[in-house]
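User: Here's a chain of 109 residues. Predict its fold as tokens.
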Amino acid sequence: MPANVKTRILFHSRRLNIYLVRYPEGHKVGPHVDMVSEGRLYKLNCVLAKPKAGGEFICEKNIFNLFGRVYLFRPDLYQHRVSKIERGNRWLLSFALTSGLHNPSRTVP
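Assistant: Prediction complete.
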């Protein structure tokens, strides 16, 4: 039985969250779209360590993909997934930015 995904929250606020994630051998992330209740969600994922086999990130549309190591994409608009990690671990530093949030203190009457 594969080990569990380990996620460490490095920073958390209303607009920005930063995570360090370890995906173990045997794990995969099925196709999905991230739900947000308000605003637009952007993710900047930096693959710190690729597994020896498998664990490829696949997204319908990236804003950019730098050498298969750094991805900027809209997980709230486009389906994305990670193929099964056949050998090794996948380490990811993930920045999740939510923009376009309503701020009642900035509302002008």
